[in-house]
Amino acid sequence: MFACPATDDFFRSRIDHMIDVRHPLAVLASRMPWQEIEAQVAQVFSRKARTGAALPDLDLFGEQVQRAARASHAGRPRVPLRIMISLLYLKHAFNESDEAVVARWADTPRWQFFSGCAYYEDRPPCDATTLVKFRRLLGEEGVEELLAQTIRVAVQLKLVSLSNSAR
């Protein structure tokens, strides 16, 4: 096996060397305002301060404040926001189900490039239920806003015509 000279990983080659970067999806990936989109979405997922609830029973020391149980942070790490946002876009753009978009993502280097991955991964980025939960947390308005921003950029780049986006 030969090492790719432009990679930090000896055993893997970069996705941008595997695909045609002139493909409309690759061009869209490079022109999207990812940082702005991620900042908008991150506000929905920011941690909220938990307040304790006062117990109604009084003991010798007065009312007791009980904190809500904290979730363990020992679970699996979060999937990056860009990947989750990309999966939502790809799901709607290619009319895929949640399960199909996650499975197809693992087999399609162009989709992984759109999602911001530097190296090809042959495993799904998340479970399909994670995508469902992400979409529910964003709400209908949030999902529609994300898709509208993506369509605006695609129309500006003339990758999609207005007649295609009206469907």
Mean pLDDT level? 79
Succession of helices and strands: HHEEHHHHH
What distance separates the N and C termini?
Answer: 47 Å
Q: Uncertain runs with pLDDT below 50, 5 residues or more?
A: none
Question: Proportion of β residues?
Answer: 5-15%
What is the helix fraction of residues, given as a range? 40-55%
Largest sheet: 2 strands, antiparallel
Number of helices: 7
Judged by helices, strands and strand pairing, the structural class is mainly alpha
Tertiary shape: globular
Rounded radius of gyration (Å): 21 Å
Structural notes for this entry:
- With about 170 residues, this protein is mostly helical.
- It has a domain at about 20-45 and about 80-165.
- Helices cover about 50% and strands about 5% of the residues.
- It has helices at about 25-30, 35-45, 80-95, 100-105, 110-115, 130-155, 160-165, and strands at about 55-60, 60-65.
- The protein is globular and about 45 Å long.
List the helices and strands and how they pair.
Layout (H helix, E strand, L loop, with lengths): L23 H8 L2 H11 L8 E7 L2 E5 L14 H13 L4 H10 L1 H6 L13 H29 L5 H4 L2
Helix pairs in contact: 3-6, 4-6
Outline:
The protein is mostly helical and 167 residues long. It is 49% helix and 7% strand.
